[in-house]
Amino acid sequence: MKLLALDTSTDACSAAVLADGAVLERYEWTPRRHAALILPMVEAVLAEAGLDPRRLDAVAFGRGPGAFTGVRIAVGVAQGIAFAADVPVVPISTLAALALGAGRETGHERIAAALDARMGEIYWGAYAVSGERVEPLGEERVGAPETVSAPAGAWFGVGSGWKVYSAILARRVTVDGWAGERWPRAGDIVRLAADPLRRAEWVAAEQALPVYLRNEVASKPLATNSAAAARIK
């Protein structure tokens, strides 16, 4: 299996390849430079893996939730590469990727992921992590930190929402620790994309959609950066 993944949904920017069981990744915390960096990152990680894009089995991307512009960039780049390589697309939740990364790094199996959504709100999801599998325990949502909840028991909190609203969230959810400086990474997105691809749970490039969670943001097919991405060799 040969997969490419990318993520531009937060202040971090990353691209990764899964090839023959090994994950290669480029990652940088780089607010507002995603449009300039993501294509060079993709080219670099493909070159390191010795992969022609036409040999890929699919392209995965962080579908959101996250920053409006960042999520749009990810959709457009993924579409462009997938169109050019004639491969399907696997959209992956950025909150689930955040949870997988926290689980791998800390060993915790119950992860409460929160990203700062601005306007006094957070993107929120609770997950059970086992190996490289992530199971959502409830729906992902956006709302005020005072309204979140998770099943009973101890959790490990992760994401920028915890950095901003830790005092409030710790009153809503029982935690035995939290890390506010962690971000979704393409390396975890590519790991999460492997099982859906095996189960044929993918979409055609033109059907790839962002997930914003906010109702007032329309979800429709995008082509941001698609033309440039299609020229990747």
Walk me through what this model shows.
With 233 residues, the protein is α/β, with parallel strands linked by helices. It folds into 2 domains: 2-93 and 184-230, Nucleotidyltransferase, domain 5 (2-Layer Sandwich), CATH 3.30.420; 95-179, Nucleotidyltransferase, domain 5 (2-Layer Sandwich), CATH 3.30.420.40. It is 33% helix and 27% strand. It has 6 helices and 11 strands. The chain has helices at residues 34-49, 68-85, 94-106, 160-172, 186-198, 226-230; strands at residues 2-7, 12-19, 22-29, 58-62, 89-92, 110-116, 122-130, 133-136, 141-143, 155-158, 175-179. The radius of gyration is 17 Å and the shape is globular. The chain starts with a strand and ends with a helix.
Provide keyphrases for this structure.
233 residues; alpha/beta; Nucleotidyltransferase, domain 5; 6-stranded mixed sheet; 5-stranded mixed sheet; 6 helices; 33% helix; 27% strand
